[in-house]
Amino acid sequence: AARRGCALWRRAGRPALGPFPRGRSAVACNVGGGAVPAGKSGLAPWIPVVGLEIHAQISSNTKLFSGSQVQFAAPPNSLVSFFDASLPGTLPVLNRRCVEAAVMTGLALNCSINKKSLFDRKHYFYADLPAGYQITQQRVPIAVNGSLSYSLCIDNKMSQMVTKTVRIKQIQLEQDSGKSLHDDTRSQTLVDLNRAGVGLMEVVMEPDMCCGEEAAAAVRELQLILQTLGSSQAVMAEGQLRVDANVSVHHPGEPYGVRTEVKNINSIRFLAKAIDYEIQRQIEELENGGTILNETRAFDSKLGCTVPMRDKEGKQDYRFMPEPNLPPLILYDAKSLPANMNHQQVINIDWIHERLPDLPSVKREKLVEQYGILPEHSFTLLNEDGLAEFFESVVKQTQMKPKKVIGWILNDLLSYLKQHSLTVKESPVSSFLLAGLLNLLEKKEISSTAAKQVLAELWKGEGKTPLEIVKEQKLELLQDQKELEQICQAVIDGQENEVIMMLLE
Amino acid sequence: QKVSVEVLDHLEHLALVDFRDSEGVERLHKAIQFADQLCEVNTDGVEPMDSVLEDRWCLYLREDDVTEGNCTKELLENAREKVEEYFVAPPGNIPLPKLEERETFLQSS
């Protein structure tokens, strides 16, 4: 039976290796071209190859083929219809919203949308798959041949970013399975079918990546795109975005090596770790004369390593067959739109294309162009939920130039929020208050040191305005020339000896 | 052409079907023979048909409204065993034992 990366999966046996193998071979992703890492002295370099299979749960009210509600953490088996439970005599009925979500995603990823796509059955036995098969799109999926561009910092410096592209092989619609909770003490599995039948978009990426960092950046960008489109909320922690990595290594000029599949990765950070560990493991294994098995491995986040997942069944044979209960899915565009059809039954690709929101890359460009900020700033703004909107709101309410405002947003505001694990929405300092403070600074009524002091006071969220705090703590800058001269003279007069010493040096 | 013992064993594992005796296997051979008649038709340049309706009908699309679910009690009535509101299943797949370890007539073939 297929082993999937369920977070509650239990592992068989102890891990074969401890955390990071000793004597790591250097694997540096050559950002200029492909990855050509340095092997141990005297040995040929290795090229790691990384491909990703990503399952994104579609954001919809109901499931892909039934009218059951989609909701996280509901009472077990409360969101299950007779069809989801695979009772005889039930039939799948396709959810229009799920198709639209897949089309939007395909368009955003530069794919060709197949105007005719087909559904198939993929057979395997498992307790959380009551029908004994999953309805998927194996022969002709809804979207093919796209691309995803993402950016990486070179050498961990934000100032040097490079853009890379990964090809999208296809996007297909398929059903999610239920959830299994393993109860080892009583030697049984508890099955909850709430998730069974929820719509998924499987995004298959070609093996164009070479390390954990690239994979993590690609997934992060995909996550932002999905969230912008609204086709998936893509929260990895809630299982709305699941990533499996296919990893292999080979010498330059030689054919691709045997690949392993790594599952059970629960965050973007762990994705990078798991891939880098697996690359190292494979290199070590091969350099020590061993071989790589074409197996599925699970990532153990506590130990930071990958371990084999027990698979007694050998190679899977899914016996794909066309889903007999579903005719082909036909999509239309402006040219092929049928004249006499009920418009609720028609999905127009062009109509959807016209209504796509600005994707993250476009939003970033606009921010850079409109406000004169650096590209890397635009990345940080979009990376934090609500931060770009906060920045724009402050800019609207202050005379301070956006190039200066950005410093306050990224250095002061963001670091405070990070320190206290707050989201932008939870910030005790509103854009109105921050703008007020920056205005005082801009009008030279306070110094920038004083401004930081006021900000520190504003964080307390006691409801005081910046002006009130300035008055309270007497932080106003003196503007009067005469008064300033008097103060300086008084200081010099009071410190005659020190002044003479200074002049003599 | 006879289907090999390895393939029959593979099918029994995949589909959990039990050929039971030589009559069962013979039935399989007859079914394959019957289906093989399809190969007598020349289909060069002809696209496979997915549906007898061809281009006339597109798949019915349902609105995204909640209309089902909320029948936990009814569903669990079918379960032989349950724990709170979960279905109970064995700890993992229990695969069919290997050919050598099973008592099946396939061994003697």
Automatic annotation (TrEMBL), chain A:
Asn/Gln amidotransferase domain ranges (all copies): 389-504
Catalytic activity line of the entry: L-glutamyl-tRNA(Gln) + L-glutamine + ATP + H2O = L-glutaminyl-tRNA(Gln) + L-glutamate + ADP + phosphate + H(+)
GO biological process: glutaminyl-tRNAGln biosynthesis via transamidation; mitochondrial translation
SMART domains: GatB_Yqey
Entries under InterPro entries matching the protein: Asn/Gln-tRNA_amidoTrfase_suB/E (IPR017959), Asn/Gln-tRNA_Trfase_suB/E_cat (IPR006075), Asn/Gln_amidotransferase (IPR018027), Asn/Gln_tRNA_amidoTrase-B-like (IPR003789), GatB (IPR004413), Gln_synth/guanido_kin_cat_dom (IPR014746)
SUPFAM superfamilies referenced in this protein's UniProt entry, alphabetically: GatB/YqeY motif, Glutamine synthetase/guanido kinase
Entry keyword Protease: no
Coiled-coil features, chain-numbered ranges: none
GO cellular component terms, semicolon-separated: glutamyl-tRNA(Gln) amidotransferase complex; mitochondrion
Source superkingdom: Eukaryota
HAMAP family: GatB (MF_00121)
Homology family: Belongs to the GatB/GatE family. GatB subfamily.
Protein name, UniProt field: GATB amidotransferase
Annotated organism of origin: Elachura formosa (spotted wren-babbler)
UniProt gene name: Gatb
TrEMBL record, chain B:
GO molecular function: transferase activity
Keywords, ordered alphabetically: Transferase
Keyword Aminoacyl-tRNA synthetase: no
GO cellular component, one term: glutamyl-tRNA(Gln) amidotransferase complex
The UniProt record lists the keyword 4Fe-4S: no
SUPFAM superfamilies, alphabetized: Glu-tRNAGln amidotransferase C subunit
GO BP annotations listed: glutaminyl-tRNAGln biosynthesis via transamidation; mitochondrial translation; regulation of translational fidelity
InterPro entries for the chain: Asp/Glu-ADT_sf_sub_c, GatC
Domain of life of the source: Eukaryota
Listed HAMAP family: GatC
NCBIfam families: gatC
Protein name, as recorded: GATC amidotransferase
Source organism: Elachura formosa
